[in-house]
Amino acid sequence: MNYLEGNPPANPLVRVVAAVGAAVLLAASLFVGAFVFLIVLGVVAVLALVFAIRFWRFRRQIRAAMEQARAQAEAMQRAAREGHAADPFAGRDPFQQRPRGNVIDGEYRRED
After folding, report:
1. For the whole model, what pTM was predicted?
2. Which residue from 16, 45, 78, 108 lies 20 to 30 Å from 91 (Cα-Cα)?
């Protein structure tokens, strides 16, 4: 008898063992598939959480920068209305190097 051609075995005990083996393999493959699916789902959830936190922090930084720029613009407008120029370097590090020269009406002076 050749079992590779698709002929079922004549012995009923072999048939029962084959059926039980097939059921065990089916259950094991379903379990492993579900386990792998849960692992992939967990990795995707962690990546989504990391992306959401990074996006939230980026939006918060952008919002803070926009509020700071708005406050500086309002201070400069207020100073212009009061008749004196506002210091564009106010609030910055005093040890930071300031640009040399003065710019008046689009002209520039170069110091060597």
Report:
1. 0.49
2. 108
